[in-house]
Amino acid sequence: MTTEQKELAQREYQAGKAAFERGDYRQAVTALERSNALVEPGSKLGGEMQIWLVTAYEAAGQRTEAITLCRKACQHPDLTTRKQGKRLLYILEAPRLKTRPEWLTEIPNLEGIDENESDRDFGRSKFAPTKPTRRVEPKKPIVPEEVDLSQVNTQDNAFIWVALIAAIAIIAGLVWLS
Fold first, then answer.
1. Residue 3 binned pLDDT confidence (cut-offs 50, 70, 90)
2. pTM over 0.85
3. Where is this region: Disordered (predicted)?
């Protein structure tokens, strides 16, 4: 493979990945097929391209092509490609779950809405008030009341002395036992 073919394959590969990430799966399949045809299928890059192509096939609704290519990827010489191929094949061959309509959320079609409609504000709820109902005044800082010291019991509490003696006794016991 020449360097020119390799560069063309890389450009097609990047274009295919970009198209896939944009959601244009048909274009992604086309670009990835072209890039896959330009590289050696047994190379690491060829394996990466095959995995991307399997994903693009599935997204584009071409499940049989995806499963066929995924089975080939399971036999790939590159270990990483083989593992990814086996994982994808397991997912692709898994039975489809049946869904009930109440489990799904319908997304409304917004194509008919004019972007310049000024009579509706789509960013706000129709129940939200458009103007504030009352003016909120800033809160004033709370100043604590002064404490009358003649009302406070300032007599010494013996708890501190009891706790200090107990701590000294525990430390002395630990030193004596060690």
1. confident
2. no
3. 115-139
pLDDT, tens digit, 9 for 90 and up, residues 47-69: 999 999 999 999 999 999 999 99
- Structure confidence by residue, pLDDT tens digits, 11-47: 999 999 999 999 999 999 999 999 999 998 888 989 9
Instruction: Give the CA distances from residue 23 to residues 20, 48, 59, 85, in Å, rounded to whole numbers and listed in that order.
Output: 5, 19, 9, 22
Q: Which of 57, 68, 51 is nearest to 30 (CA)?
A: 57
Average of per-residue pLDDT values in the chain: 84
Range of the domain at 68: 3-92
- Give per-residue pLDDT as tens, 90-99: 999 998 888 8
Q: What is the CATH number of the domain that holds 63?
A: 1.25.40.10
Structure tokens at 42: 């047994």
Cβ-contact 29, 56 below 8 angstroms: yes
Rounded to an integer, what distance in angstroms lies between the CA atom of residue 38 and that of residue 4? 10
Residue with tokens 């107990």: 166
